[in-house]
Amino acid sequence: MTGHTSAQARSDDHQPWRLRRRRQWPNATDIRRIGSEPDYRFTLANERTFLAWIRTALALLAGGIAVVQVVPDFGFPGSRRVLGITLVVTSIVISATSYRHWAEVERALRLGQPLPPSPFPRLLGIVITVVSLIVLASLLYSSGGDAR
């Protein structure tokens, strides 16, 4: 429960699923009715950031598919599949949450509030570290630990 009181959480449980979904995934038209119109440059910068995260998600998806379908077997059995699944799941998480983050930032801009922190840099840093460790372990395993 992020940012909800226990009373709000209980009332959310009794609301139709559409209302709960709408609160978590607000419509852009609804957001534009909140507060006052910010400087258009900030709105456009927020949109560019959203699109950058969508491009990142697409690149991760393409990378995940390429690892599973194109890259030859290496390392321990199933390493390609683990890498591919990790990349595709990260793509899903980023694409599923980037719109919500855009909406939170847009709302904060319109209300003159501090911008919410972004979870994406930390998530991407963790995933790239995990993928790098899997690749390193696979390379060391496939070479038998020998430096060639």
Which SSEs are present, and which pair or pack?
Elements: H1 6-14, H2 17-24, H3 28-31, H4 40-69, H5 79-111, H6 120-142
Helix pairs in contact: 4-5, 5-6
| Rg value | 20 Å
In percent, how much strand structure appears in the residues? under 5%
Form type: elongated
Q: Which H/E pattern describes the elements?
A: HHHHHH
Distance between the termini: 52 Å
Report the biggest beta sheet as strand number plus sense, adding barrel if it closes: none
* Poorly predicted runs: 1-12
Count, helices: 6
Q: How confident overall, as mean pLDDT? A: 82
The total beta strand count reads: 0
Structural class of the helix and strand makeup? mainly alpha
- Percent helix range: over 70%
State the main characteristics.
148 residues; mainly alpha; 6 helices; elongated; disordered N terminus
Describe this structure in words.
The protein is mainly α and 148 residues long. It is built from six helices and no strands. Helix 4 packs antiparallel against helix 5 and helix 5 runs antiparallel to helix 6 (120-142). It is elongated, with a radius of gyration of 20 Å. Mean pLDDT is 82; it is low at 1-12.
